[in-house]
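thought: fold this chain, then report.
action: predict
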Amino acid sequence: MFLKAAGSKLVVIEFTAKWCGPCKRISPLIHAMSLQYKDVIFANVDVDESQELAETYNIKAVPTFQLFKQTRTVNLFSRIKSALCCNRSGLMTTPIFEMCGADVKTLEAKIRELM
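observation:
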């Protein structure tokens, strides 16, 4: 599995969709972080192309960022405010940890903390 192969490295998974405006805007910034943080593994999952994976990880809104280390979720960022999010359904479940309205600065700070 992808997460097991990462070993002790931090893994940042961005759940996104092609039709999502905020996803399109944040994607270049996430790509820039992937170039800056060589010890962090970044991955992108299109929720429409990988519906089963999105359901497995309980993705209800995009973009959603999940951070893993040693195959355990360490934090979850969901952009759920209407100005920042494209909702796939009207319901959001409560993750282990959640930060609503997460932005690149908040995500980057969490990456630095968990590296």
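thought: worth noting. Helices lie at 2-5, 21-36, 51-56, 104-114.
final: tokens above.
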